[in-house]
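Bumping with the actual sequence this time:
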Amino acid sequence: MELNQWLTVLSAELGTTDVTLDDDALHTVLDLARDSAHEVERVAAPLTTFLVGIAVGRGETLGKAAATATALLMDGDGSD
């Protein structure tokens, strides 16, 4: 299944069709996953994006939540 098709199907099943996942949002999430995988460890990628998603669900903007996580990663606070 192609990515856009997968996201459309998944969004419909999860009831999140009101959320716009544009190119900026995709790049933000993918960059965050990449950075957390490289700066912490591989399994940090899905867990970091999950926590950022929870923050967004609680009212934070994606940009601010991702920036907070990225700042922690770049400061070295995301690792041992």
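The tokens above came from a reply further down the thread. Residues 33 and 49 are 6 Å apart (CA to CA).
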